[in-house]
Amino acid sequence: ATYLNTKFGNNYLIYNVSEHHYNTEPFKNQVIDYVFPGYPCAALDALFIMCKEIETFLETDPRHVAFVHCQASKSRSIMLLAALLTVQSPEYYHPEEALNSICNVLEIDADSILFPSQKRYLGYMGHILNGFVPRYAPLVLERVVINGIPDMESYFSPKERVSEGARVMSCKPYIQLFRNGKFSYSSLDHQLQPLFEADLSYSFKVGQKVENDVLIRCRHYHDLDTRISMFRVFFHTSFVTNNYLRVGKHQIDGAKDNDKFPNTFFVDFIFSDWEGERDPEENKDPLWESIHRKCQERIDQKKVATLEEVDEEEGDPEIKDPLDPDYPVAPEAEFKITDDEEEETTTPGEFVESGEKTQETTTPGEFVESGE
């Protein structure tokens, strides 16, 4: 605090995305908390709003300096900075490019610093910044199908493992659904049965309306007192096509690089159209319409800048388009995990290494990022 106050005086702001509050008086109360407990990143619209707020602060005075922090893993901070640089700078067409630049400066591995869900949301930003407009289109999540049975019971000693006769159970999974930041549904009270390696796949019947930002968390029920986090997936319904979404092992928080999951593991999300009544104007979100206009201006400016650069050289311009299927996409990030014990909550809660012993409660909890 002494350094910041001496160096920058009243010309700095700290943006805290760690979920942890602290005494801000040493920083002259120049701290802004962005809170999205239990989620790998902010909701998609909130991510754009955060970027705009930081950008506005920096543009109001050339002396202004912004600091972003989370905790030890740096994943939330780096994701937000990658999004901000892409929104702010004409140098980047896609957040992946900004991410690589940041990681080069920090000398860290861009392919492993973010959670798969964070990478997914940077991809969403890339599409929006290049012309895609999210729409409010509610769906019904009919089923969640896991393909490949993780051996979650292998975290326990042979005496602790649950078995049925000669067969040793692999897992007893249940899912939790969080819609737009709120707990919405759990299959724990409706559908719970032991699964074995030979089962190959398992389908959860859900039948819940979803829209916009959706988080699915899957847990293993070892016994009444012991639950284990298995995996989570965070996605936005505007990017669901043909009422179907499939995510592979490398795209799933908690499953990637986890040898408890078979290499061929994947999860299917099956949707249907929501038939309820709604105002036709609901499909037009003023925020996204405004962002789209800004993004279109950005696209035009970048094309002009690219053409001007090419005019100084020989040859035709080559404009990279992230919407092109041949556009290179960085591999999904490694999901790191902690060894802390926490209580089960009805917020997305902690996402930790499978094998941690937690209880199911209705007490709101706090998500602890890996390494934070």
Q: Mind explaining what this structure looks like?
A:
This protein is of the alpha+beta class. It is built from 6 helices and 13 strands. Helix 2 (44-60) crosses helix 3 and helix 3 crosses helix 4. The longest helix has 26 residues, at 286-311.
Helix content: 10-25%
Q: What is the N-to-C order of secondary-structure elements (H for helix, E for strand)?
A: HEEHEHHHEEEEEEEEEEH
Number of strands: 13
Biggest sheet, in brief? 4 strands, antiparallel
Largest sheet, spatial ordering of strands: 9-4-13-12
Shape: globular
The stretches of 5 or more residues where confidence is low (pLDDT under 50) are: 316-344, 352-357, 361-372
Mean pLDDT rating: 80
Range of strand content? 15-25%
In whole angstroms, how far apart are the ends?
A: 21 Å
Q: What is the alpha-carbon Rg in Å?
A: 22 Å
How would you classify the helix and strand content by structural class? alpha+beta
Total helix count?
6
Can you lay out the helices and strands and say which pair or pack?
Layout: H1 2-8, E1 12-16, E2 31-33, H2 44-60, E3 65-69, H3 75-88, H4 95-106, H5 116-129, E4 139-147, E5 163-164, E6 167-168, E7 173-179, E8 182-186, E9 201-210, E10 213-223, E11 226-236, E12 244-248, E13 266-273, H6 286-311
Parallel strand pairs: 1-2, 1-3
Antiparallel strand pairs: 4-9, 4-13, 5-6, 7-8, 7-10, 10-11, 12-13
Helix pairs in contact: 2-3, 3-4, 3-5
